[in-house]
Design brief:
Length: about 400
């Protein structure tokens, strides 16, 4: 696969493809067809995802209507309450949330949501965008099952400019009306197996779904093209270890494809390593390797990068991507990415476009990943143990909402 063909893959899939939609399924089929072009056969492995269609989402603050999107899967509500702007997350600030609708200038992740529930908040308002761009795009957010754990509340998302306006006019009372239809839908992981001499295998992952505002050549058709690049090579050059390529669905909603895959013990029993690609091959910015494993793996990648003269920022940590459910099962995992300055290519917004994508840079990045993958796939013994150091376990538990770390 050359630079031109890689760019073509990004061009072919320049559409919004959110989890559980026909467009996401269309992209899954596209990947399957691409795999068949080099003579292999990939399969779609479906899994269930919750779906919603918003019918009404309204926010008024002191009688003034504010454009908003309603949170998917947050249920149906008609609630009016005093408004409180939560600037800090210390105990006193949180205690002020009781029986209020809370305005936030940050995202509401797992632990922030638990804080809001514990504080007795009645609902919340988040925001996105920047004051420095012309668009008024408001992202479509979701109250994830993993986050609400059965305790749902009304929530809407607004543009940052309106957030500033509400704070400036000292908004007192908020009213949220939310109506939606909810049902169970389906998403797919696209799976390709390249058998080796042994059943133990390396799992390669990259997600192909996008968020609601993004056509996602960078996040993350780039990683999907990378997996196609690697699969084409290994299809002609089988190795000691078996290889499984997993184009994951529904990553943007909380790693749902990778979580569904890793939840099946028989899927991961023989998995010795995960190599994940998420946002790579852009023209600008630095290459990074986020290793979720022991120091042995980060040192190895670091040494190898030096040996090849490939600039690479290697660090130990938890990458917010499909590598994490594998690492949670104590499988040594690494995410490779090239992180463009946010002012040059966006993600999760309309600025994730072709402007900063580069076929040549994709080839260079994928060749590095291939060099690493070849060494691992042809190893007589996997050099990294299937275990997670204590410090990394703490980070994983925090990320996955299992145990909060300070
Ligand atoms: Zn991504």
């Amino acid at each position: 696969m050359n630079a031109k063909e890689l760019i073509q893959i990004l061009e072919d899939t320049l559409y919004i493809r959110t989890s559980g939609t026909a467009e996401e399924a269309c992209c899954a089929n596209y990947i399957r067809d691409k795999v068949s072009e080099f003579g292999c056969k990939a399969e779609l492995w479906p899994f269930a995802v919750s779906m919603a269609e918003i019918q009404t989402a309204e926010l008024t603050v002191d009688g003034i209507s504010v454009p908003c999107t309603g949170y998917f899967c947050a249920g149906n509500w008609d609630v009016e309450a005093p408004l409180y702007y939560l600037r800090h997350d210390d105990e006193f600030s949180l205690s002020q949330c009781k029986d209020k609708i809370v305005l936030l200038d940050t995202v509401v992740g797992y632990w922030k949501y638990q804080d809001l529930v514990k504080a007795g908040a009645l609902g919340y308002i988040t925001c996105n965008g920047t004051v420095y761009s012309d668009d008024n795009d408001i992202d479509q957010k979701e109250q994830r099952a993993f986050v609400h754990q059965g305790h749902r509340m009304p929530a809407v998302n607004i543009h940052v400019r309106d957030t500033i306006d509400i704070v400036r006019r000292n908004g007192k009372t908020a009213h949220i009306v939310l109506k939606q239809k909810e049902w169970e839908g389906e998403s797919n992981n696209v799976i390709l197996d390249i058998p080796g001499e042994v059943d133990e295998y390396i799992a390669f992952t990259a997600h192909y779904d996008t968020t609601h505002l993004s056509v996602g050549p960078y996040d993350n058709m780039s990683g999907c093209a990378g997996l196609l690049y690697l699969a084409e090579y290994f299809a002609k050059n089988p190795q000691h270890y078996s290889l499984r390529f997993i184009w994951c669905g529904s990553e943007e909603r909380g790693l749902l494809g990778a979580k569904a895959y890793c939840a099946q013990e028989e899927n991961i029993r023989n998995c010795i390593m995960n190599i994940n690609l998420d946002m790579i091959g852009c023209l600008m910015g630095r290459f990074l390797s986020c290793v979720t494993a022991g120091e042995r793996m980060s040192s190895y990648i670091s040494c190898m990068s030096n040996e090849l003269g490939f600039q690479n920022d290697v660090y130990l940590g938890v990458y917010s991507s499909d590598s994490t459910p594998f690492a949670d099962k104590n499988i040594p995992a690494v995410s490779f990415a090239r992180i463009s300055p946010r002012t040059m290519s966006g993600y999760h917004d309309r600025y994730d476009d072709m402007y900063c994508m580069s076929g040549e840079q994709m080839v260079e990045d994928f060749e590095f990943v291939l060099a690493f993958a070849k060494r691992m796939a042809s190893a007589k013994r996997c050099p990294f143990p299937r275990e997670m150091p204590e410090e990394m376990r703490k980070k994983l538990d925090h990320y996955l909402g299992i145990k909060r770390s300070k």
